[in-house]
Write the structure tokens for this entry.
Amino acid sequence: MTAPAPPPFILSVSNRKGGSGKTTTVVNLAAEWAARGARVLVVDLDTQGHAGLGLGVAAGRGEPTAHDLFRRPGFDLVAAARPTAWPGLSCVPADPLFEGDGERDPGQLAAQLRRPDLAARIDVVILDTPPALDFILINALAAADGVVIPLLPHALSAEGVRQLSRLFFRIASGANPALRLIGLLPVMLNPRVNHHQAILAGLTRQFGPERMLRGIRADIALAEAFAAGRPARVHAPRSRGALDYHLLAEEVPRLWRRPLPVSAQEVPA
């Protein structure tokens, strides 16, 4: 008898501070895992809509978006997913005009993503969250299995990490006891800059070395790929950024303590 498929792993990529590399991380991790054969769904919960743009997906006027979940009772979030140009990778785009109206049930997103029927269709869900303490971010953390916190290695971004960690522990001690901090992800990293080293040393002391993920080095190719609406592994496969996200995509699933369902061989970019 065949064992039932495990439910999708739900990963929230979050930081209370904008410009911290959240969306770049969402797009490139999603592409890396899809290239390995996983079925990946990106849900763009940030009204800037950048995750969809980074994957070449946007909602037209009147078309369904991720934010319809919060204003249309009975809305099927997964049915609103759009295929991307890359096999196995789909995206529910954001609504840039969403103003926070509608229901504010902290369990709305979890109810959609914990449906038993999704296990046979999706392996990983990645949530791109807004850089604000609002009910959408709370929904994301209440639904997630784990959180990755990207950060720029400077003082303001480090403070954003501390603010998010307080919310994380509030959710983990209440609405979602299974929530885990997968790790902190330094982005736009230059190990030769003393300030970068000092900030990372402080975060390592506070959160522990086991919480510090492989860093993403500064690389203009990541911005160029995003502007082209393509992941770095497609746009600039030999770039530092593409290599760093390739390695990160191998590191993160090991921290889930559950193997990522992948094919035996990568799909060519």
Remarks:
- The domain at 9-256 is CATH 3.40.50.300 (Rossmann fold).
- The longest strand covers residues 180-186.
